[in-house]
Structures are given as structure tokens and as C-alpha cells.
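Acetyltransferase
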Amino acid sequence: MIRKARIDDVKAIHGLLMHTDEHDALVLPRSFSQLYSHLRDFVVAVDDDDKVIGCCALSLIWENLAEIRSLVVLPAHRGKQLGRQLVETCLRESVTLGILKVYTLTEETSFFAHLGFVEEGMESLNQKIFIDCLNCPRFPDHCNEVAMIINL
């Protein structure tokens, strides 16, 4: 099941994002402070026992731009369309908010291409560069991410 994240999910989300090597994920870790501040951005996938097994966030960047970020699904639960459901839930929320342009930075281009995202030059994402990329330890020389955009 996919649902909005709740305060008692923060530790599980943090665990997903902090153990990216263990889960073969390619996401940047987030601090507890960041997660509490942006909890409303997150949706989670939960198993039958309501245990968090995946997460994704929709981050509002500007009046006409949002970002899909922090997408992780535990390896044991991959192949069940949970990643797709998490992203699609975020995209529906973006439409509800009136934001029809959504991007992601990813190394998993085929996954996002199947969802309708297309590659875009990083130069079109000036807001993102100033918000997050300048503070990222991978920027600029070690970043392998590709910008992908979908117009809803």
C-alpha cells in the first residue's frame, strides 16, 4: 500500500536513505532534521504489517517546478511495481498542486523513461543547481546523474 508518510515513519525513511549502499540505491542521505522539515513531501510504501519498505518525495522547487527525489524500495520488495506506484503518487500530487513540470536527477534513466520522463540538459534546472547541487558532495566533478523531466 502507498500512503502519505507520518511522523512515526521518519526513522524508517532515514534508515532507507542512510543505507543506500546496502540497498543498491543511488540517493543522497538526508538528516533527521531534513526529514522532519520535509515530511509532508514523502509518500511511503508499506507491507501488510505497516512496515515502511519504500519511500519517495515530491519537493516543490519553484512555482512551476517540482522534483521527484529520495526514491528507494527495499531490495526484497523490488519488482512489484512499488517504485512506479510511489512516483505516480507523487506525480498525481503535483498535478493537484498545479505544478505540471516535474524533474528528477537520476542514474536510473530507463526506469524514469518508462514513466514518461525524457532527458533534459542540467542547464534548464537553474533553481535546482542553487538549491541542492552546490551543497552536494558529488557536485560538480563526481555527479553521474542525468536530469529527466516530465510535463504533465
